[in-house]
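Supplementary Note 2. Why include the ligand at all?

Several targets in our set were suspected to adopt different conformations when bound, so apo predictions alone were not considered sufficient. For every target with a known small-molecule partner we therefore ran a joint prediction. The input for manganese (II) ion is given below.
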Amino acid sequence: METRRFARYRPDGGWEGIPEAEYKRQAPEGMEFRSVIRRELLTTGAAFHMRYFEIGPRGYSSLERHDHVHAVVCLRGAGRVLVGDEIFEVRPFDFVHVPADVPHQFQNAGEEPFGFLCVVDAARDTPRRVDPDDLAALVCEFPTPTA
Ligand code: MN
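The joint prediction is reproduced in token form.
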């Protein structure tokens, strides 16, 4: 049972006692990602989980969709977020809502880490890849990340 009530943030090391974790164990085909770390702030005792993700320069999260929603608040750096047929340039304190079953991806759009909080249901479905045809129908201006 998680008993932590406080975690000090250190700019160079993140929250004390909250280790850096893998973003995803593996990337299924079509769901590749680059330079993403996860810190789990709260994952017990509630119907939601609160996670912090940080994407390095030129990094990006999986392009994916799922039935659960994301409530995101940017904390650090500059990002570019695809949500369905919209693209948002985000900076600290901006809020992003990813509704159910909407394709989405987070990209770093700057030279420093792009960090954001992301709240999700504790019980949630597994992300699925976005069909390339569906993506092509949604958006034409979202830059494809280059490896
Ligand atoms: Mn997602």
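Residues 81 and 143 are 11 Å apart (CA to CA). The pocket of manganese (II) ion is lined by residues 64, 66, 70, 104, 127 (CB under 6 Å). Comparable summaries for the other entries are listed in the accompanying table.
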